[in-house]
Give the backbone structure.
Amino acid sequence: MTSAILSARHVGFAYRGAAPVLSDVSLEVTPGRSVALVGESGAGKTTLLRLLLGLARPTDGQIVFDGTELSPRRRSQMRAFRRSVQTVFQDPYSSLDPRQRVGRIVAEPLRSLGLLTSPRSPQDGPARRADTARGEATVRREDTARREDANGRVAAALDAVGLPADAARRYPHEFSGGQRQRIAIARAIVCEPRVLLADEPVSALDVATRVRIVDLLTELRETRGLTVVMVSHDLAVVATLCHHTAVLEHGRIVEQGDTAAVLGSPSHPYTRRLIDSVPRLPRLRDEA
């Protein structure tokens, strides 16, 4: 049996002085099996995603990464976690810094995680400190190497999401909503993560653009072995992209399993109500 990359074990969460948002939630994210979190607004989906991302700590239970409880105090663990688990937010208009060029935005995880090439000269150490000119030359070489490394990785990430390399020189406001979400996805995949956590990644987009972004996520899942964990209200997106679906109601998982089984033959009344609430086009009567 494949070990989980990321899991929630009997997780509960409550804000101070408030009623629990999550209660006894257990969920596993295994390699190659993308997961959907579905439910009405206020069900606790985004809170669970935040816990899985390490942005909050559970009140009860554990978030486990590669078999070990996730702890912000363990720097080496958090460094490996941040490289392995990246996120895409809902709104492509607010998730990108409008003051930064796209290339710098996409390269941000590489810089923050220290993943850029930094070759060391044999003259580093005491010799470098003794010879300022030689030290400055070494620094320039390192800066050039890091810049070239970043540019190459950014270009590859942009290409993977269907954007040209020259997009790196432009600003976010020069792109459409769908293109901005592609930029956000490029930023998420540039460090080659194992898991992508996505909070309603297509809800702010028009229908045609949603389809293209879902197709892109499907392609990345298949070509890069990327495992997607997605919060979504759109059951059609869930059926297309995710192998496993967990249904949350009032902070509890009431049903989970293979997406085809959960959406095709739901066992819980709440799941059936969710499916029945999906809008359908009315039948057109023949004009006669």
